[in-house]
Amino acid sequence: MFVGQILGAKGGKVVSTTAEATIADVARLLRRERIGAVVVTEADRLCGIISERDLARGLADYGAELLEMKVGQLMTSEVVTCTPEDGIDHLMQSMTRGRFRHLPVLQDGRMIGIISIGDVVKHRLEELEAETHQLQDYIAGAV
Q1: Quick one: which of 78, 51, 73 has its CA closest to 62?
Q2: CA–CA separation, 62 vs 92, rounded Å?
Q3: CA torsion, ordered 81, 87, 90, 94, to nearest 10 deg
Q4: Phi/psi of residue 43, each to 5°?
Q5: Reported pTM
Q6: What pLDDT score was predicted for residue 143?
Q7: Separation between Cα atoms, residue 97 and residue 78, nearest integer Å
Q8: Tens digits of residue pLDDT in 24-76
Q9: pLDDT confidence bin for 124, thresholds 50/70/90
Q10: Can you tell me the distance from the alpha carbon of 117 to that of 80, in angstroms, rounded to the nearest whole number?
């Protein structure tokens, strides 16, 4: 399975913010959209990503003043990305090795979606379930 297949089923909606937004704004956005990360863009160009994990670390480091800080002060600016042609196995290895849960999907330098570890696990489980049913059907037909 490839990233493009997951994105085709999930859709290409990407929630974004700017580096000038406050952390309080991002916290509200994460809650409202029920997501774990937001990409940071400037003039339709990916310039970072900020996740719930970043907010938790920021709270530990800065306390309550975190809420008034700008996203640009806390975001991860060296973002690992993927393409629609990347395989799921490669994605899982990247996410595990890098210890991150969200990957923006780029095609020809343009962001077309975002894939989370939850998306990958969901689709992998669906694959395994389909394989199980095929094996059960095969066995039932052979008896």
Answers
A1: 73
A2: 32
A3: 30
A4: 55, 50
A5: 0.83
A6: 62
A7: 15
A8: 999 999 999 999 999 999 988 899 999 999 999 999 999 999 999 999 999 99
A9: confident
A10: 14
Note whether 84 and 104 are within 8 A (CB).
Answer: no
Contact 127, 1 (CB under 8 A): yes
Asked if 117 contacts 95 with a C-beta cutoff of 8 angstroms, the reply is yes
Rounded Cα gap, residues 26 and 20, in angstroms: 11
Q: Checking DSSP bridges between strand 37-42 and strand 16-17, what pairing results, if any?
A: parallel
Tokens of 127: 């694959």
Q: CA-CA distance, 143 to 139, in Å (whole number)?
A: 6
Q: What is the pLDDT of residue 130?
A: 82
Q: Which two tokens stand for residue 119?
A: 């998306």
Enumerate the β-bridge partners of residue 40.
17, 48
**Domain boundary assignment for the chain:** 3-142
CATH number of 3-142: 3.10.580.10
